[in-house]
Amino acid sequence: MWLIVGLGNPGKRYEFTRHNIGFLAVERFARSLNAPPIAKSEHKSLTSKFKLDQHEIILAQPQTFMNLSGESVVPLSQYYKIETENIVVIHDEVDLPYGKMKLQKARGHGGHNGVRSIHGLLGKDDYCRLRLGVGRPAHPQQSVADFVLEKFSETEIHSLPEFLDNCNTALELLLDHGFNRAASEVNARN
Q1: Which residues contact residue 24 at a Cβ distance below 8 angstroms, ignoring those fewer than 6 apart?
Q2: CA 188, CA 190: separation in Å to the nearest integer?
Q3: For every one of its 190 residues, what pLDDT tens digit does the chain have, with 9 covering 90 and above?
Q4: What is the CA radius of gyration of the chain?
Q5: What phi and psi values does residue 87 have, to the nearest 5 degrees?
Q6: What is the largest CA-CA distance in the chain?
Q7: DSSP 8-state symbol, 77
């Protein structure tokens, strides 16, 4: 069984902000597979559970707010007895340009508070992370925290569907061929 978690903040105020790209990614993945909507409330998350070929998959959007994401991810993984290597966390990454992505595992949190919460409560970092680039503020005076809570620009919104489709491809590679091959292919493209 796989647990694929898109990180973000709940509520209308945060829709289409850079920090919520994880939410957008799992929603697009669900739609691409005609999976049930991500709507079941459990363990401080909204989830969708379905089968894809030989894989059982749970898609999740934590409803705890970003900084407390571990309070959702860890109970879900424990309840469904999901091995750490079958947890995928999708999140925004300011250290990658917009539209780029990296598939990695066993890395530090890099200052991302959602990942920090998961690391802390899970007690390990050997789960998969799909880091989706949102870039850094154009103006050095703007804080990164304010930047990621802004809505995507018009240009970013225009290219967002293609970016999320590339994310779908990365997830399919991971499910079909495992972490090493998927990371090699995804990271070589970026």
Answers
A1: 6, 8, 16, 160, 164
A2: 5
A3: 999 999 999 999 999 999 999 999 999 999 999 999 999 999 999 999 999 989 999 999 999 999 999 999 999 999 999 999 999 999 999 999 999 999 999 887 777 889 999 999 999 889 999 999 999 998 888 999 999 999 999 999 999 999 999 999 999 999 999 999 999 999 998 7
A4: 15
A5: -100, 130
A6: 49
A7: H
Q: To which residue do tokens 């705890």 refer?
A: 64
Give the number of other Cβ atoms within 10 Å of residue 158's Cβ.
10
Half-sphere exposure of residue 56, counting CA atoms within 13 Å on the CB side?
Answer: 6
Of the CA atoms within 13 Å of residue 13, those in its CB half-sphere come to 4
Amino acid (1-letter code) at residue 71: E
Model's pTM, two decimal places? 0.95
- Provide the residue count of the chain: 190
Is residue 139 flagged as an active site residue? Answer: no
Sign, CA dihedral 27-31-33-35, equals positive
Are the C-beta atoms of residues 30 and 83 closer than 8 Å to each other?
A: no
Residue 153 to residue 184: CA distance in whole angstroms = 30
